[in-house]
Amino acid sequence: MGLKNVVEKLALSYAHRSIDKSLYNEFNIKILQNPDTYIKKPKPGKSYMLYAHVPFCHTFCPYCSFHKYHYEQEVAKLYFENLRTELRQMKEHGFEFGSMYVGGGTTLINEAELEKTLILAKELFGITEISAETDPNHIQPESLRRFDGLINRLSVGVQSFDDEILKKVGRYEKFGSSADVQKKLKNAMGVFPMLSLDLIFNLPNQTQAQLLNDIKIAKSIAPEQITLYPLMKSNMTRDAIAKTLGVSNVDNERKFYEIICENFSDYYQSNAWAFAKQKSDLKDEYVGSNSEYVGIGSGAFSFLDGELVINAFNLLDYARKIKSGKSAVIAKCSFTRKEMLRYKLLIKLFDGCIDVSAYNSQNKANIHKDLAFEMSMLKLVGAIKESDGLIKPTDFGRYICLTLMRDFYAGMDRVRAIFKDDAKIKSSKMLRIMSDEHDTIKAEAILSNTAS
Ligand SMILES: C[S@@+](CC[C@H](N)C(=O)[O-])C[C@H]1O[C@@H](n2cnc3c(N)ncnc32)[C@H](O)[C@@H]1O
Ligand code: SF4
């Protein structure tokens, strides 16, 4: 193994250990004693992105740890009503947002409710761009057209075009064969300014041929953007992944990432894992592009003023808080200034470039002094290059960012795991809280079946 390889291996292992340390040892979640008094407030002159969580799916996929419940129309309707109430709360607290990201779950699972919510968001705030996520069963052009002028970017989960992989993760039965999904995607093209197609790579036992075939098919459909996520595993999903996809002794993440970058050299790289046909101003990862964001909905995270702020996960808990005009927040976790600066360094590098003077003025920092160690290490291992006031990741640097973001997302699962059991709390008072006219017994039945 050459010296370069050894240095890179050491750098990757150091980076992994240090983010793990930050997320595990130092991630100090405080369950608030008086959560009702916590109010999210904007800082004058700061811009924020709005994130709204839609925690419903018809069926669950084994690799997915996002906060979700089995879909029930009545529960979802009440949930969306609460989401709109929380939107109004944010307006009352003085927030303005330019862009909105609706994540899930499957955000188009109840189109009428989503439409009402997006219209309200646009009425309340100066929102000019909305991104949403969905699955291949919710992209019929007739249904999408009602969101014309509302949604700017729709990302559709495909995960793989390989029938065997789709069968193993249960998506073949749910969303159809690879050929069916390709047809659905082709029909959905052109409805919105941007259609993004999500794939996952480095699945256990995935071959290079399967990856190349995924890339070839994705490029032939020619959506505006293709995102390739490295498989993220955490304690919440490890067993289910092993059970369905098996276990592999070989980790192909880096090799496959290099193949991906080579095969997308004719695309514009929007961030470490997204490739666009053309450069666009649309924000991709809400975490990356806007370092400060406000999350609404059950289990949504906000990142505000150096704190990760966590909304109630349990649907009833969330509903009770919102219905009584209280804040949905239940916990938060503070970062030290140094951690904040490192986090912002990571997300900017993940996005592809740090403008040194903008970074310094936005964070009231001096990146070369405050992060002297990190900067010299990144330079030493050949992960970044600096010129004309811009710091850019090299190919290797981009891969480090991808692994760190992968670790960061898996780290968020630790937070979800803390509150997951909470989501199972059967809710004796569910419908009384969510809606007075509702039938409580039915609500209990629904909730005991829906908790993820
Ligand atoms: C919140 S999901 C919503 C997608 C939509 N519900 C669907 O299933 O098509 C957004 C995307 O995250 C990605 N994702 C989910 N779990 C992942 C994991 N464990 N590793 C890598 N990517 C993952 C998938 O590509 C997925 O399409
Ligand atoms: S991948 Fe999509 S459909 Fe599958 S469980 Fe996650 S959010 Fe739901």
TrEMBL record:
InterPro entries: Coproporphyrinogen-III_oxidase, Elp3/MiaA/NifB-like_rSAM, rSAM, rSAM_horseshoe, rSAM_sf. Residues 42-270 form the Radical SAM core domain. Coiled coil: none annotated. Pfam families: Radical_SAM. Signal peptide: none annotated. This is Radical SAM core domain-containing protein.
